[in-house]
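Continuing the series of single-chain predictions for the mutant panel. This is the parent chain; the variants come on the following pages.
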Amino acid sequence: MSELSIKIRVADRDYPMRITPTEEERLRMAGRLLNERIRDFREQYGIQDKQDLLAMIALSTMADQLKVSKEKDGTDAALTERLARLDEVLSSVVLG
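Parent structure:
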């Protein structure tokens, strides 16, 4: 598959990237969302330094990812437990 050369603008800086065509939409959306979060953090906290803004966004994003991961683990455990109970019920019906 051929690669595209694109530039993603984040915090008023262009970042050149070589990507596959299937990645383009996702990366452009990520750039837009990141710039929106920079604007939101700047307005919310009154911070102008871009490095500080990016560090705060990285920390917030990682905390969000850890929360989602923990919730997913809980959901996976609950689903596994339900499937085990369903298996027991079905086994008792089939073998019963």
